[in-house]
Design goal:
The structure holds 2 protein chains of 2 kinds. Chain A is of the alpha/beta class. Chain A has helices spanning 3-13, 15-26, 44-58, 72-85, 94-117, 155-165, 205-214, 236-247, 267-278, 294-303, 318-325, 338-341, 354-366, 368-385, 388-404; strands at 32-37, 62-67, 120-124, 141-145, 170-173, 186-188, 223-227, 253-259, 284-289, 306-309, 330-333, 348-351, 409-412. The longest helix of chain A is centred in the N-terminal third of the chain and has 24 residues, at 94-117. The radius of gyration of chain A is 22 Å and the shape is globular. Chain B has helices spanning 26-35, 38-46, 62-69, 74-81, 91-108, 143-146, 152-165, 172-177, 185-192, 201-220, and strands at 7-23, 121-137. Classes of the chains: A alpha/beta, B alpha+beta.
């Protein structure tokens, strides 16, 4: 057990939380756990795994994290599947299917040994989902972890994927709203952020204030920020429009800090669309950050007065969680997991239009005390509900439930 | 002291499982309520404090919260909010009471059964994983030192979930103190005054800790 790492978490979340994790992990110390996803850098899934895997290891579990690879065409197909699963109609051809399945077959050949040796196999999102089809005689537990809002999928693509994920022993969704009828238990586990990572740790004041110089920002003007990939579901154009509308009433500056992920080939196209919408406005700053710019994102979030996440579709919205952890109220789109984090007048505001976002920007910049109070409430809410320690507790509980039977109440004996 | 008379400190964690059943209107909610597993009632009444939720317990169950926020029927929300699950012998009786309240409200209001809620009600069930921590207390005085370090799961198990398990529908602390009666009757009365339905788990822990500390300091003085 890595007591140093556990001690660092304990300093943030308290000893009661860590003691409970140790208790749960003690009953699982023989279990071998494997996570498989499609990128090691960029995006919420990779970030969660980067924290989750060492923490599981620190508790004494045997854990592996494997990443499938593939040519650019493969990731174009899976990005298209991703968009379709969030409700965007796409062309999904036989050739796409062949490419997807063939790539999974090649990856299976590389991973066969570890896939068969693990007791619990967590497959994240659709990219590696087809791996299960090559192990019909498996004896271990396969769990499909869906990080996507599946509430209104584009049906032709969902029908195809449903036939694959139906083979799993269980699936995990971030919210009940995201589930679809499947022939196995669907667990509800919201994702989380890690308070110890570069993206969320405390930073020296000079580093936070340094972003103003670094990105040509005015330290005297209020800073409104959205951090998201250049993805149409994050509504970057709507964000620019909201800022322009609010600027008519008060001085402010907008930073849209985005980036790409290795499994998202669409980012650059959207980036250029956003640049065009900003029309070289001196108070609108569009930043294309590399995936490893975690510390910069952290500093920007801490320097911001108000944070936006004006998504029209969202899996969970970890950037919302990050901003709330830094005591910022968030103006978020009324969609997906943003709804369970942003509570009107408590931790921020839910909006439906650029006009709504513009109004709430003005409100929060006008009421200084209210903004600070909401930020504190947001921080407490994240601390109790959306840190990696709670996320891990849910995973460990799920695994214990799995090996202990399907009863409503599972009693685990003391271990002496 | 015999093992059976010791206080067994337990911890628990909740696993939430979607049933895939949802209701957009009150008539649908009523129909589903008649059929869903009783585990759903446990989740929506008892387990809500153990899962991520912003709500300060203004609403004591998810049905009341949905009626208020998404169906916008304040009358129904108030009536549902008054239902105290520990007053029922079992979850089937609780289900019957819920059905009665919904049917009564449907009879009173013409179009309400068909009014579409802003967001559907999702029926979720839960599994509770109960862990024996191995820690045993032999004297009530020890509660003063150990309760402040209880996890939220331990607080939930001993102070809320206990009301479903114990014969008198009380928390585990009071149930244990009865074995020492009448010596700790005053302490039991103070514990009874903590209403779990108006507090978060963190607040319950704070109040329990304060009660134990005050009581045993007074006793020692």
């Amino acid at each position: 057990m890595n007591h140093d790492l556990l001690g660092r978490y304990e300093a943030v979340v308290g000893s009661d939380v860590i003691d409970q994790l140790k208790q749960l992990a003690h009953h699982l110390k023989e279990a071998r756990v494997l996570h498989v996803n499609s990128t090691r850098y960029g995006g919420g899934v990779a970030e969660i795994l980067k924290s989750m895997v060492p923490l599981m290891e620190a508790l004494g579990l045997s854990v592996r994290w494997e990443v499938i690879s593939g040519p650019e065409e493969f990731f174009k197909v899976t990005k298209s599947m991703h968009n379709a699963l969030q409700g965007f109609p796409v062309e999904f051809t036989e050739q796409n299917i062949k490419l997807y399945e063939e790539n999974n077959r090649r990856e299976f050949e590389k991973l066969e040994k570890v896939l068969s040796e693990a007791d619990f196999v967590f497959i994240h999102d659709p990219q590696p989902a087809f791996l299960i089809k090559f192990m019909p005689e498996r004896k271990n537990h396969w769990i499909w972890r869906c990080h996507i809002d599946l509430s209104r999928p584009f049906r032709p693509v969902w029908r195809y994927l449903r036939n694959i994920v139906s083979d799993y022993d269980a699936s995990i969704f971030s919210m009940p709203d995201f589930t679809q009828p499947l022939p196995h238990p669907q667990y509800i586990i919201p994702p989380s952020i890690d308070p110890l990572t570069e993206k969320n740790m405390e930073l020296p004041e000079e580093e936070v204030m340094g972003v103003f110089d670094r990105f040509g920002l005015d330290p005297k003007k209020p800073l409104v920020l959205q951090v998201s990939r250049f993805d149409r579901f994050k509504d970057p154009i709507g964000v620019v429009r909201a800022a322009l509308m609010a600027m008519k009433f008060m001085p402010l500056q907008l930073v849209y800090a985005g980036g790409g992920a290795a499994d998202d080939p669409e980012g650059e196209v959207i980036y250029h669309e956003v640049l065009a919408a900003a029309k070289d406005h001196p108070d609108i700053h569009i930043l294309y950050l590399p995936p490893e710019a975690h510390r910069t994102v952290n500093a920007l979030q801490r320097a911001a007065d108000v944070v936006l996440q004006k998504s029209t579709r969202e899996g969970f919205g970890l950037t919302v969680t990050e901003a709330m952890w830094k005591k910022k109220p968030v103006i978020g789109g009324d969609t997906g997991g943003i709804r369970i984090q942003v509570v009107n007048h408590h931790t921020g505001f839910l909006v439906h239009t650029p006009e709504g976002a513009a109004l709430r920007i003005r409100y929060l910049l006008f009421y200084h005390d209210k903004r600070l109070e909401m930020g504190l409430k947001a921080h407490r809410f994240v601390k109790e509900n959306f840190l990696i320690t709670r996320h891990l507790r849910d995973y460990l509980s799920l695994m214990l439930a799995f090996i202990s039977g399907n009863g409503e109440r599972i009693e685990v004996e003391a271990t002496g | 002291m015999e093992e059976a008379n010791l206080f067994h400190v337990k911890d628990c964690a909740l696993v939430s499982i979607s049933t895939g059943i949802k209701a957009y209107i009150l008539a649908e909610l009523l129909e589903h309520l008649k059929e869903v597993e009783v585990g759903c009632l446990y989740y929506h009444f008892w387990a809500r404090q153990l899962r991520p939720s912003f709500d300060h317990p203004e609403f004591h169950n998810d049905f009341a919260a949905w009626a208020h926020r998404d169906l916008h029927d304040w009358v129904l929300a108030e009536r549902l909010n008054l239902i105290a699950p520990h007053e029922f012998q079992n979850l089937e009786e609780l289900r019957e009471e819920l059905i009665n309240v919904l049917e009564e409200r449907i009879d009173e209001s013409g179009d309400l059964p068909w009014r579409k809620a802003e967001k559907p009600f999702y029926f979720v069930k839960s599994q509770i994983v109960v862990l024996d921590t191995g820690r045993r207390l032999s004297h009530p005085k020890e509660l003063k030192d150990v309760v402040p370090g209880f996890s939220q799961g331990s607080i939930f198990y001993h102070f809320i979930d206990a009301r479903r398990r114990t014969p008198d529908r009380i928390d585990d602390f009071r149930a244990w103190l009865m074995a020492f009666a009448p010596r700790y009757d005053d302490l039991a009365a103070r514990l009874a005054a903590i209403d779990p339905y108006f507090l978060t788990l963190t607040e319950i822990r704070q109040q329990l800790s304060a009660v134990f500390e005050d009581y045993f300091e007074e006793e020692g003085a």
